[in-house]
Specification:
By secondary structure, this protein is an alpha/beta fold. About 35% of the residues lie in helices and about 20% in strands. It has 20 helices and 25 strands. The strands form 6 sheets. It has a 6-stranded mixed beta sheet with strand order 2-1-3-4-6-7, sandwiched between helices. α4 packs antiparallel against α7. This is Hydrogenase maturation protein.
Length: about 575
């Protein structure tokens, strides 16, 4: 069947729907709903069997839904209506939620229901939930709805009742630092993650706060800034404190959107002297766990070590890479047989931090520093020969982040992961030793295809191509536990010792054929030329991505229908959960 996806952006859910529909044998193409572009004319040109809207901020025109069956994915249970459905669910502390696939008609979110699915809603950020529990429920409902439509016999059921809730505006998101408890503040911050953020007054300026994590020990006067940690800011609430990882400056009238940045970097010289409070070890040699927020953590279970990390949006700045490399080198001093890299529930990595680069005094120099820091990290993984290294992807990976994962001996993915091993959409040749790691997994021809095409790849498809060694079917919150179980079993296998013994010899053989330094030099030469050429497309593409500028037309590679065998994509155009941008 030919399915046309209509979306406001090619975001994470749209990519996953695109990939999984192709896995099921459907032809799939995309049209973006853009200002000044006739969506009716675009849809008419495709002549699809079905129109599906995974993420749409505006209503479908009557010309479209009157001529075609149009199914809309709404991130709320049956009867829930409105543009801030998931935001309100998180802010209200709902513990169960759902996704509804309904037919578009004249009233927003009020059409007949083709399928629905329920899901838990753990106390986490909206964007994390959107890529996790909500995405899983959405795919369950979408695949069922498409199957029902293809049957030609299913009659969708009308909504007997519904409750339309208004847009959640900034005045509804305000934090009262003098009165709000930590739980109140966290719900407000999580409901605005990653868009639109929570507007707040701080140090004489207006900022949008992004992300929020509980602090277990630090205390102070409500509203007081208490400490920093790895770029994040700790602020006291009425009964405790929270960590805020990122800030974004308010957009000036007529100006571009500012990038989200590590909080201390955004504040720069506005920030008063505050203590830098490092996180205690996630667990010590005695196995005692310490509960506090940190972007990087380490613990051990028997002969398996687990180096976890979670950076906002999956973006890894120069500082992120260097901190993770330091932690990796420390982990190598431990007497483990298997070292698991990652294992969290959200993004593994999306490569270099385009926001930090855009905000730098010299973006070319920061780009160069960032890509070299990513390469240093990948090289450390590639040259580890005294234990097995596993990349555990509980969330999506793109561009250099996907290539970082391939540096490990094995790659494990949660079944809902979308991989994007392509740099092309950012105008880059790519690095992180992909010219070494990718061909040895999939062969030169497919490696070339995966880095030049730009369509999403599901974990299942990646496994079929040899890009991934294992897929793990589990809920997002269970991936870490499943990874620990599998890693412990791997460490105990008799064959693991012989695999480790053979790693050093294999690395020496490969080094003799072509040294890693030669791969790095060949990859970085075109990257350097691009970074330091002010006319290179990379700079305009980066700026547009960071500022969330909409394209003037749907990119050609999305408009062309595709089916199996699948290819791959570059970075998502926008990875926010749905809903109008209130900034």
């Amino acid at each position: 069947m030919y399915v046309l996806l209509v979306a406001s952006a090619f975001n994470s859910l749209t990519q996953r729907v695109h990939a999984e529909l192709r896995d099921h044998g459907h032809r799939v193409a995309v049209e973006l709903a853009l200002p000044g572009v006739s969506l009716a004319d675009a849809v008419r040109g495709h002549r699809p069997d079905l129109v599906l809207a995974p993420m749409l901020r505006t209503a479908l025109p009557e010309e479209v839904w009157a001529a075609h069956t149009c199914l809309v994915v709404h991130p709320g249970p049956v009867g829930d209506r409105g543009p801030s459905s998931l935001d309100r669910a998180v802010q209200d502390g709902e513990v169960r939620w759902g996704v509804t696939v309904l037919q578009a008609n004249a009233e927003m979110d009020a059409g007949d229901v083709w399928a629905s699915a329920e899901c838990p809603l753990p106390p986490l950020g909206k964007s994390d939930l959107y890529r996790g529990e909500i995405a899983d429920a959405a795919l369950e409902a979408v695949l069922l709805a498409v199957e029902r439509f293809a049957s030609g016999t299913y009659v969708p059921r009308p909504q007997e009742s519904g409750h339309a809730r208004p847009l959640l505006r900034q005045e509804d998101r305000r934090i009262d630092w003098q009165r709000d408890t930590t739980d109140d503040v966290l719900r407000t911050l999580r409901a605005a993650d990653s868009q639109p953020g929570v507007r707040d007054d701080l140090l004489g300026g207006e900022w949008y706060l992004h992300g929020g994590h509980r602090e277990e020990q630090l205390r102070g006067r409500p509203g007081e800034l208490l400490a920093t940690r790895d770029g994040a800011l700790c602020r006291a609430t009425a009964d405790g404190a929270v960590w805020i990882p990122e800030l974004r400056a308010r957009r000036l009238p007529g100006g571009p959107a500012a990038p989200k940045l590590p909080a201390t970097l955004a504040l720069a010289d506005r920030l008063p002297p505050l203590p830098e409070v490092p996180a205690p070890p996630h667990s010590g040699p005695d196995g005692a766990h310490h509960r506090t927020w940190s972007e990087i953590g380490y613990h051990e279970e028997g002969q398996a070590g687990f180096l976890s990390f979670s950076f906002p949006g999956g973006a890894m700045s120069t500082a992120h890479c260097r901190r993770l490399l330091d932690a990796y080198r420390t982990a190598l001093t431990r007497p483990t047989t298997v070292l698991v890299l990652g294992g969290g529930r959200d993004f593994f990595s999306n490569g270099i931090h385009l926001g930090v680069i855009e905000a730098a005094a010299d973006p070319a120099e920061e780009s160069w520093a960032n890509i070299n820091a990513m390469n240093d990290l990948a090289e450390a993984v590639l040259t580890t020969t005294d234990r097995l290294v596993v990349s555990a992807l509980g969330g999506n990976a793109a561009a250099g982040g996907a290539m970082l994962a391939l540096a490990a001996d094995e790659v494990w993915c949660r079944s809902g992961v979308v991989l994007n091993p392509s740099y092309r959409l950012m105008g880059l040749h790519g690095s992180e030793y992909w010219t070494y790691t990718l061909p040895r997994r999939v062969g030169p021809a497919l490696a070339d295809r995966l880095t030049t095409e730009a369509l999403p790849l599901s974990a299942t498809a990646a496994h079929g191509l040899g890009l991934v060694d294992r897929t793990v079917s589990c809920a997002p919150g269970d991936f870490s536990r499943e990874t620990q179980r599998l890693a412990a079993r791997l460490a105990a296998l008799p064959a693991t010792a012989s695999r480790i013994a053979g790693k050093k010899a294999a690395r020496e053989r490969d080094e003799a054929v072509r040294p890693l330094a030669a791969h790095r030099e060949a990859e970085l030469a075109p990257m350097r030329r691009t970074f330091f050429d002010p006319d290179a497309p990379y700079h305009a593409l980066r700026r547009a991505f960071v500022r969330k500028e909409r394209p003037v037309a749907t990119p050609l590679h999305l408009r062309a229908s595709s089916a199996r065998p699948p290819a791959v994509t570059g970075l998502a155009a926008s990875d926010a959960a749905p809903g109008p941008d209130c900034c």
